[in-house]
Amino acid sequence: MDLLDRLFASEADRWTANASTWWDDFYADRSKPVPFFVTKPDESLVSYVERGLLTPGRALDLGCGPGRNAIYLASLGFEVDAVDLSPAAVAWAEQRAREAEVDVRFVCGDAFTAELTPGRYDLVYDSGCLHHLPPHRRVSYRALLSRVLVPGGHLALTCFAAGAMGSELPDEEFYREGRLYGGLAYSPDALRWIFSDFTEVEMRMMEEQPPNAPAFGVPFLLAALFRRPAGA
Asked: Can you tell me the distance from the alpha carbon of 133 to that of 131, in angstroms, rounded to the nearest whole number?
């Protein structure tokens, strides 16, 4: 895995050992008009909760960024751990959590090597982590789910949608080029293949939200909810 990781090191993309520096620079100016710098949770996550598809339990937020989804879950009574590579992102998220007066355990580091309790989480939430991983790290991602997600637990994610945002190159081209081109685009069928042993609960395009809406939504993300089989 380390050898394959190094194929992408030359551009210090959003992955590799230089990723935390890249993201620290990205988060340095909090006033930038970046859509997900808002404090609102994903509209898809809100929808899952409001329809009873997800209920309070123990949650892990992968690539939490400034913490908007972790804070939302904590406000509903979830016991939340949140991990991100970027110290700048984690510091911002911790500040937001204090302001919101919620308790979130933030972990600064690589989710694949961080000390996360095996079999702990009822929900793994990923808003934009998967699409920044090189193809070979899908193996690490699946191994992480197997390690930390309880049988019967849920994986909820948003990622770049094919035809709307992100690169649609064949996997091998990323290794030839040594670049991820800002992120990989996924189709519904691609997600179904990656998580073929999970049960699909729902998959749809994220619904765009107006500026004054209480939730975050942009039309170029694919939102998916899967359930790990109870016997797995």
From this structure: 6
Q: Are 83 and 61 in contact (CB under 8 A)?
A: yes
Question: Could you give the strand order of the β-sheet that contains 58-62, starting from the edge strand earlier in sequence?
Answer: 104-108, 79-84, 58-62, 121-127, 149-160, 221-227, 199-205
Report the range of poorest mean pLDDT among 7-16, 69-78, 220-229: 7-16
- 113: domain CATH number is 3.40.50.150
In a domain? residue 55: yes
Cα–Cα–Cα angle for 165, 145, 66, nearest 5°?
55
Q: Using a cut of 0.90, tell me whether the model's pTM lies above it.
A: yes
Spatial separation of the C-alpha atoms in residues 30 and 131, rounded to whole Å: 23
Give the residue-averaged pLDDT of 154-169.
98
Which whole number is the average pLDDT over 10-28?
Answer: 68
pLDDT at position 31 is: 87
Phi first, then psi: what are they for 162, rounded to 5°? Answer: -55, 135
Asked if residues 22 and 12 have their Cβ atoms less than 8 Å apart, the reply is yes
Task: Assess if residue 232 is contained within a domain.
Answer: no
